[in-house]
Amino acid sequence: MDKGSFYLTTPIYYVNDIPHIGHAYTTIACDVMSRYKRMKGFDVRFLTGTDEHGQKIQSAAEAKGMTPQELVDKIHVNFKELWKALDISNDDFIRTTEPRHVRAVQAMFERLIEQGDIYKGTYEGWYCVPCETYVPESSMGENRTCPDCGRPLITMKEESYFFRASKYVPQLIEHYEKHLSGVMPPVRYNEIMSFLKSGVHDQSVSRTTLKWGIPVPGDEKHVVYVWFDALINYATAVGYLDDPAMFARYWPAVRHMVGKDIIRFHCVIWPLMLIALGINVPVSVIAHGWWTVDGEKMSKSKGNVVDPFKMARVYGADAFRYFLMREVPFGNDGDFSELALVGRVNSDLANDLGNLLNRSIQMIVSYADGVVPSAQPSGDATDSDVRSLGASTLKAVDSAMETFSYDEALKHIWTFIRRGNKYIDETSPWKVHEAGNAGRLKEILLTLHDTLRLSAMLVAPYIPSSAEKMWAQLGLPGSPMAALLDDFAWGAGAGAKVKRGALLFPRIDVEKWKEEKAKEKAMNAASVSDAPASLPSAPSDHEPQIGIDDFAKVEMRVALVTKVEEVPKSKKLYKLDIDLGYEKRVICAGVKQFVKPEELLGHRVIVVTNLKPAVLGGVESNGMILAASVKTPGSEQVALIAPASDIPLGSRVH
Ligand SMILES: [Zn+2]
Q1: Do both 273 and 144 map to the same domain?
Q2: Fewer CB within 10 Å, N or C, the chain?
Q3: Is this structure's pTM higher than 0.70?
C-alpha cells in the first residue's frame, strides 16, 4: 500500500558546533515523523547531515594545525554518533564537502549564471579582520563590534556574485497565498509573508576573502558563500544532479524542519532559488521554537548546556525523546528540566505504560498459560468502548501528526493507554477468574493484548526501542515499526505466546535523585574552589584532563607593553597599554607588589586576548597578561612570561 513519498530533512548542522539539545530536538522530531509516516505506508526519505565550509572551520583548523578537510573528517563524526545514541533512523547523512554536493552546487550556480540570475557586483559589509568574517548588522555587538571576539568592525568592499532574488518575489508571494501550510506554524507564515512584502534584496552568493568553500565554476578566486552552498544539500541528497528518477520520486514531497532562527533562508531565499531554477518549492517549512534550561537561556558560561549524549546515557534515549516531544506544543519555546523529565518517566512511562504492560502480561501468564486466547466479541459495552477509543485515537493521532503537533498526538495516545489501565480495574479479571467465567476471561485477556499491541504501534515512532521490547513481551513476530497502522485489526494477536521481561521504565526514586544531584553540584563547586592555593603541586588524578580543543579556545598572543600606570585605588593593579600589532588595548594586571614598572615597559608579554572584558579598580580590562606564581609561607613570587626570541606582535601562542 503505497501512499506516495514523504521527504523530510533536518537542517545540516554546523560541523564545528558541539551537539546540544537544539540539534537533538530537531532531529528527534524529524525521526518521529519519519517513523510515523513509514508506519502509515509512505515511501519515506529522511535526511540529515553537516555543513562543513566557511571561515570558522578554516580558522579552527589552522588553530589545530590541521587542514580544514582533516578537521571536518574528524568532527562530523560527533553528530553521527549522537544520532546513533538517540536511535535516529535517517536514510542518508550528507556532508557539504562530498563530491556529489560540490558538483550539484557548481551546476546550479552555473545554470543561474547562464540564465542571468546570478551576476557580478560589489559587496560591501562590516568585517572583522582577526576573525576574517563579515558580520551582519543584526548580530553586531555594541558600537559595531564583532559578536565573536568583541573587536571593532571595519567596512569592507569586494567583488561578489549576486543572486537576482528580487525578481522572483512576486511568484513566491503568489505561491504562499495559495499554500497556507507552506510555512508552519501560522505565526511563522505571517512573519514570512510580511517580510516578503517588505521587499527582498538581491543576495551576495560568493566571497573572495574566504578560501574554504566550493569554487565558483570558471572564476576560482571566488568561493560560493556558505548559506547558498548549504541550502542546496537538500536537492543534492535526492539526486538533483545524478539521479533524475530519484529526484522526481522524492522532491515534490519535500518538507524542511528548521529552528525559527533560520526560516528566512528556508522560506525566502531557498524557494526563490528553486523558482529561478524551475524546481518545485517545498511543500512545507516547519519551524520549531527554542529551549531554555530550568527557565534560563542556555549558555556555555552558565554551564547549563544540556548534553544529549549524557541524557541518553543516564535516562535512555527513549525517555529523552519522549520528554522532548511531550513537553511543549511544537512551534513554541520549551523549557528543559531534568526534574520534569524524571517526573514524566515516573508518571507516563513507568506508571501508565509500564504498568499496563506488566499487569496484562502477568494475567495472560496466570490465567491462560501465557497464550493469548481467541474469543468472539460478546458486545460487552466496556470492550466496545475500548475498541472505539482505539479507532478514534488512530484518527486523532493522524490529524495531530498532519500539523506536526507531537504533544497532541501523545496526549491522545496516553488517553488510550490510561483507558487500558481503567479497563483492568473495571473488568477485574481476577474476579472473573474466581467466578469461573472462562468465556468472558478470554475476551478480557484478548482485549488487553489488543490494547497493548495498538499502544506499542502508536508509541513506536516516539520510543522505538521500548516499543520493540513491548512487542517481544507481547509475543509478536518482527517489529512494531514494520506494522502498518491502517492495517491494525482487533483480535489479530490471538495465539501469541507472551513473555515476561524486564521493566520497560523502572521508577526513579525522586528523593534519591535529588540527593545525588545535590552531591554532583557540590562536587562541581568544590573542584573550582579547591584550586591549589599554596605550594605548586603536580596535577592530581582529580584534575580533569582537557582536549586540544579546549586548549585551542584560549587565544594567547604576543604583545608589547607601551605604557604602565598605577591604578590609584588599588594595591595590586597596574593599568597597562599594550600593542598587539593589529590593535591597541588597555589591560589591568595584578602584579604591582611583585613587578617594577620598568620590568614591563617596552617588554614583550603574552596576553590572553579572548577573555571577556572586566572592570578592575574602576578600569575596564580587555585581556590578561600571563605570569607564573608560587606562594610559600610568608612570601609569594611572580615571574612574567615572555617569548624567548623576537617574534612579531600579535603572533599567536600555540
Ligand atoms: Zn572577530
Answers
A1: yes
A2: N
A3: yes
